[in-house]
Amino acid sequence: MSEALPAYPMARAAGCPFDPPPRLRKVDPISRVRIWNGSTPWLITGYHDLRAVLSDQRFSADPRHSGYPHQSASVEARQSTAYRAFIAMDDPEHARLRRMLTANLSVRRAEAMRPRIQQLVDELIDDLRAGPAPVDLVSAFAFRVPSLVLCDLLGLPPADSDFFRVAAATLLSWTTPVTETLAISTELRAYLLNVIAARRQSPTDDLIGRLAAGPLAAGEATIDEILDLIVQVLIAGHETTGNMIALGTLALLAHPDQFAELRDTDDPGVVTTATDELLRYLSVVHGGRRRVATADIEIGGALIRAGEGVVLTLEAGNRDETVFPDPDRLDIHRRSRGHLAFGHGTHLCLGQPLARVELQIVFGTLYRRLPTLRLAVPFDSLEFARETVVYGVRSLPVEW
């Protein structure tokens, strides 16, 4: 019977890199799929059903549960090691660790960083304007922004930002061999252990310094737990924002009227609305968030039994026409704030305030300062990263 079920993940349509796979749109809002190991978890595609699952703590995020639908054999092997991300934990353990980051990633603190982020973005654009063109916007700008912001936030030297990006990309890939993942994870953790030790000797007012002087010094968290929190901030903050900048720019270049409007506006409200619409439209965290039921639960008329896995396709929920009329159309004036790009419920992305500020500054600055920005290669020659948690364009050659 499982052989007759659609295989997941599904392929995107050729020439439609911004849209979810067409097969994904044709399945029922709750249905079964077959994944790499032959198991048949539930696939959830409807907006309201996704919110219901993400809000229900009877659906566990812990990959140690039997029936958990891992993304690949490599990911399953990694998640069986001693290292556990707090985002792959359930409450109360998840909530205890999450609280240690909440104040450091709040809306207030993100807004306080806005002038510094604006300065960093302007300096990077100065470098673009002073250098040769064409240039790869992915490496020269899109990933440089979150790298430098995270170095500021964590108190890490910008000179090491390339190492952090390589580590993030490696750890989020579905296909990286386990030995390679463990090697770079060990290297990153050793690096950060030295930083934490230095902060304990000489306290600093940055995220690592505050974690070292706060929960670690008070015995509220172990050194491994503090390490995990820092690693999660580094990894998630790099890949999501970097890919959104690059893919968002490409989407706007493919919609020249909206590119022009965003370029020419001096209304911050338009930039804010456009940012959320791009987040909804692109939904770069793809491939399905994973859960496993710990009890028999009815969702959308389907009975999901204890021990059955669930794959949550947020990109499909963000194209649900019952919530977002004409969902396949990019509309920078659409009120999209209720989108699922950052998830929902207790595991809602902690870094969303900072990500929003970064994206608003980039989308409100880059095109205004490079008003003739355009692709330097044919659109159909671009390659996209698919075998990873965060979807994006691998390289984006541009000129102006």
TrEMBL record:
It comes from the Bacteria. Gene3D superfamilies: Cytochrome P450 (1.10.630.10). Its EC number is 1.14.-.-. SUPFAM superfamilies: Cytochrome P450. InterPro entries: Cyt_P450, Cyt_P450_B, Cyt_P450_CS, Cyt_P450_sf. Keywords: Heme, Iron, Metal-binding, Monooxygenase, Oxidoreductase. Its cofactor is heme. Signal peptide: none annotated. This is Cytochrome P450-SU2.
